[in-house]
Amino acid sequence: MVRSTTIFRVSDALPLAASVDDENTEKALTEYKQQSKLVFRRLNANSEPACSIESGQYTLHYLIVDKVIYMCICDSSYPRKLAFSYLDELSKEFQNSYGDKIDSVTRPYAFMGFDTFISKTTRLYRDSRTLTQGGGPTAGPSSQLDQLNENLKDVTRIMTKNMEDLLWRGDSLDRMSHLSTSLRAESVKYRKAARNINLQALLRKWAPVGGIGFFFILFAWWRFF
């Protein structure tokens, strides 16, 4: 089932809205939410628009639509089709409600009122067996379920990644970037040092000759003037 949902802005990973999780869920998912923040700080407009990231007993699914990231943490056994159909529904309603305000907000969770829609949609997607089979007492009106099943996304082309590999790769890229910056700084420093060494070598080589020449110039000036 869907355990938790958060909506972020792509440009700066600012959280815009989230599900209101109970204390037990919040405690169980603390580590996973922290991981999701690390991942989303690295996303940009050119990142994959949809992806599933496996992390232990949970899978993090995200969908990028119109500069906004829609993320849900689900049980690893929860069907991917349902997860992305769920995120798709959230994206449509969120854009209809707040599309013209997304770029201007500056405070986190500026649209927490969206939790009402998140909660309602989460309840609809709670029982994955009922939804995928198209009926049942907990699913709501049959017409709603029929429409839902028709709208389930084809997720065969959506990539699946591993959280540990993704974070390790990101950390490695960060380290490589830092190392590259350090190497450039060291290279500049060594070039300056090399120029100073060459200048000192020239001075040592030509200083005696210059001194002698200067002495003769002074002697000639004193002798004839």
From TrEMBL:
It is a single-pass type IV membrane protein. Residues 144-204 form the V-SNARE coiled-coil homology domain. Residues 6-118 form the Longin domain. One of its GO terms (molecular function) is SNAP receptor activity. SUPFAM superfamilies: SNARE fusion complex, SNARE-like. Keywords: Coiled coil, Endoplasmic reticulum, ER-Golgi transport, Golgi apparatus, Membrane, Protein transport, Transmembrane, Transmembrane helix, Transport. GO terms for cellular component: endoplasmic reticulum membrane; Golgi membrane. It comes from the Eukaryota. InterPro entries: Longin-like_dom_sf, Longin_dom, Sec22, V_SNARE_CC. CDD domains: Longin, R-SNARE_SEC22. Its main location: endoplasmic reticulum. Gene3D superfamilies: 1.20.5.110, Longin domain. The keyword Coiled coil applies. GO terms for biological process: endoplasmic reticulum to Golgi vesicle-mediated transport; protein transport; retrograde vesicle-mediated transport, Golgi to endoplasmic reticulum. It is found in: Endoplasmic reticulum membrane; Golgi apparatus membrane. The chain crosses the membrane at residues 206-224. PANTHER family: VESICLE-TRAFFICKING PROTEIN SEC22B. Belongs to the synaptobrevin family. This is Protein transport protein SEC22.
